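User: Reviewer 2 asked us to show a designed sequence for the structure in our supplementary figure. I'm pasting the structure tokens here. Could you produce the per-position amino acids so we can include them in the response letter?
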């Protein structure tokens, strides 16, 4: 990580320099050098995957434009709708993609290059991006929503079960059995695109990020998808940590809810893409990205209540961290955030309405999520908090869907690959050997 050099501008500050401008410049330096881990890297770094010698100088000069944008999907964990808002957003987006592309079988996984999800968002990412027996994604967005609705109470019951009782008996919960039935022996290597699903490891006292890219490099970072989903949704207050090992048994973690580490995984996903030159060789800045970040509704907090539970405080911390990530990412995108970065979240407080209350029934959650999608979208503004814009959340999803379609169509005629995904070798999983292959431009 590069250090911050002293800027001549900062040395020559006079007494009339405005504080807000200085703050902006300082944040820009920190943002460029630390937040996303890149610093004036060559526009077209040499890659062991893409043979750049086969392209002319003219091709390379136009590479930034001809290679298009990397498409990233990020899904929050904690929220008032238990994941239903994010799932409904994905159903709306998938319907839009099918309508605009003319392909009635289009899936979310077809139009994104990377998926990151925390908690219930991690479960949704796993359902949408894990390869099924037919080679296609296991679930459509509608299927993922149905799964979430049918198993929501099992997930919640898992979160509220007795931690001591469960640790003594070591018996799998009902939701763990469901995950086993859905994913079987599938691991991180069996996802169609790069996935990033966080948890918090109590052994190292640090966030742990389940990553397809890491799993393909080293077997010690490959985990079964059923365990990944259990880990990222394990409630630390009620159910206690989940002990799990990698496929080769070399990596052992004691995991709790990913929302503790990163309830909003957007920054982690962006960092992963910008620093992964093997798979994203021409992606050098946020202007080379298309990012959709999905929230799960604002919770109502009775701050004055003397009996606030630990779970309540954890939710406050998680949702507050999500807002901070949204603000930071918006700053990083700057002027291009209008088209390149979209955040979908409920806006009850911003619309001068009572915060939306969590509901106990599935029907009410579905209705509530529909209302949230019809709300005016809220955007973060540089150093000015948030503002309500004219477009609704559903309209923003429609517009973003159009951008995804344009990028998909552009890749059909592109000379240079936008994404060069690593693929697992056919050798046994006990070997960490992998092969690299260039996917078609439709990836």
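Assistant: Here is a per-position design you can include in the supplement:
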């Amino acid at each position: 990580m590069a250090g911050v050099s002293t800027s001549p501008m900062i040395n020559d500050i006079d007494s009339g320099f405005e504080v807000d401008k200085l703050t902006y410049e300082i944040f820009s330096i920190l943002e460029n050098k630390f937040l996303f881990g890149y610093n004036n890297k060559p526009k077209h770094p040499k890659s062991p995957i893409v043979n750049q010698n086969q392209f002319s100088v003219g091709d390379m000069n136009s590479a930034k434009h001809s290679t298009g944008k990397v498409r990233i999907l990020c899904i929050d964990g904690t929220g008032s709708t238990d994941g239903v808002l994010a799932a409904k957003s994905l159903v709306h987006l998938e319907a839009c993609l099918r309508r605009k592309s003319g392909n009635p079988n289009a899936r979310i996984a077809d139009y994104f290059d990377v998926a990151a999800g925390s908690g219930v968002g991690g479960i949704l990412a796993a359902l949408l991006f894990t390869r099924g027996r037919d080679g296609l994604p296991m679930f459509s967005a509608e299927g993922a929503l149905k799964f979430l609705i049918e198993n929501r109470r099992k997930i919640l019951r898992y979160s509220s079960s007795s931690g001591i009782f469960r640790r003594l008996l070591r018996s799998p919960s009902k939701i763990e059995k469901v995950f086993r039935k859905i994913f079987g022996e599938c691991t991180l290597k069996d996802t169609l695109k790069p996935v990033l699903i966080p948890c918090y490891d109590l052994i190292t006292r640090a966030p742990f990020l389940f990553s397809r890219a890491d799993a393909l490099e080293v077997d010690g970072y490959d985990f079964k998808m059923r365990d990944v989903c259990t880990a990222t949704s394990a409630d630390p207050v009620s159910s206690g940590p989940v002990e799990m090992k990698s496929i080769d048994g070399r990596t052992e973690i004691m995991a709790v809810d990913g929302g503790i580490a990163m309830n909003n995984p957007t920054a982690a996903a962006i960092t992963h893409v910008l620093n992964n030159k093997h798979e994203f060789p021409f992606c050098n800045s946020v202007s080379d990205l298309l990012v959709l970040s999905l929230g799960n509704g604002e919770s109502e907090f009775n701050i004055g209540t003397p009996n606030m539970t630990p779970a309540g405080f954890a939710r406050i911390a998680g949702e507050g961290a999500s807002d901070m990530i949204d603000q930071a990412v918006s700053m990083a995108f700057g002027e291009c955030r209008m088209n390149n970065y979209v955040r979908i979240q409920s806006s009850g407080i911003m619309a001068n309405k009572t915060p939306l209350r969590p509901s106990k029934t599935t029907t009410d959650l579905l209705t509530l999520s529909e209302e949230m999608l019809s709300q005016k979208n809220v955007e973060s503004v540089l150093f000015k908090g948030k503002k309500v814009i004219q477009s609704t959340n559903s309209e923003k999803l429609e517009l973003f869907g159009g951008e995804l379609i344009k990028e998909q169509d552009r890749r059909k005629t592109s000379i240079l690959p936008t994404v060069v995904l690593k693929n697992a070798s056919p050798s046994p999983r006990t070997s960490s050997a992998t092969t690299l292959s260039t996917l078609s431009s439709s990836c």
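For the response letter, you might also mention the following. Residues 1 and 37 are 7 Å apart (CA to CA). The longest strand covers residues 385-392.
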